[in-house]
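W.,

You were right to be curious about this one. When I first looked at the sequence I had no strong expectations either way, so I just let the prediction run and decided to look at it fresh. Below is the sequence, 104 residues in total, followed by the output.
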Amino acid sequence: MFVAIIFATAAPIRWRPRTHISVEIERTVAFGLMAMMFIFAYPNDRRVVAIFCILGAVGTELLQAISPTRHPRLNDALFKAMGATVGLVVGALILQIAAVMPPS
């Protein structure tokens, strides 16, 4: 999923997938889902996952500086980091709830 996000972020604008939702929601959801998947995959390394996801949000925005058709923006990086943070928190809460629920 991270590779797909990097492609959509750094590729020329004409190669970027088109959706019918706002780009802010698209970015936030993509990074939120990515962070949640990483939390589920590495539940014992939550701090490392958090650092990776938040730095990845900023890094993917900075990657746009190498593409002449893309322009990095602080606002976009903040939406990505916010989505990653929400995904991290939701994923961690789901893991905590699953840990205390008795198996059926």
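Here's what jumped out at me. Residues 23 and 76 are 9 Å apart (CA to CA). And, maybe more interesting for your project: Residues 74-100 form the longest helix (27 residues).

Coffee later to discuss?

I.
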